[in-house]
Specification:
Blueprint lengths: L2 H32 L2 H23 L6 H6 L6 H43 L11 H19 L12
């Protein structure tokens, strides 16, 4: 892989992360408008389907075979449930934690869970054992989360509201 290709992948990963606070903030407002976070979650996921279907059709992707679908283990379908969990929790927590607090905590959870997935090579991932530098990096991340959520020197952010 060339340096330019690598830089492109890094940029795409950064964009993927950058859309999360926008999605969470917009869905929070959607929940207010629709009257409940779960209605906003459903609306958000329906819009996802409506956006994705034309892309699939434009790319002329073939339908997956039913035989292949029937042979897939049940755990492979859990991604959709995790997506619902993330969107619903974002809608419920962003008003209380703020966008930066929610994203920092979500990112910390993602990194810690990812380290376990990598360490054990779960779900077909390449095994990447825990090491002192990786553990230190995770501890720095957790320290950053604490500073983002509780480091407001005015005291306004020291206790949850609501």
């Amino acid at each position: 892989m060339t340096t330019l290709q690598w830089a492109g992948l890094l940029l795409l990963a950064a964009v993927a992360g950058a859309v999360v606070p926008f999605q969470s903030a917009i869905n929070t407002n959607l929940a207010r408008g629709l009257g409940h976070p779960l209605w906003a979650t459903l609306a958000s996921l329906l819009v996802s389907v409506l956006v994705l279907l034309p892309v699939i059709l434009a790319l002329r992707l073939p339908l997956p075979g039913w035989a292949l679908i029937g042979r897939m283990p049940l755990w492979m379908w859990a991604g959709g449930a995790f997506g619902v969990c993330f969107v619903a929790l974002a809608v419920m927590l962003v008003p209380r934690l703020g966008a930066s607090g929610f994203v920092a905590l979500a990112l910390a959870g993602q990194v810690l869970a990812s380290m376990l997935l990598d360490h054990f090579g779960l779900f077909g991932l390449v095994e990447k054992p825990l090491s002192l530098p990786r553990i230190f990096g995770a501890l720095l991340l957790v320290a950053g989360v604490v500073l983002i959520q509780f480091g407001d020197s005015t005291g306004r952010n020291l206790a949850p509201t609501g």
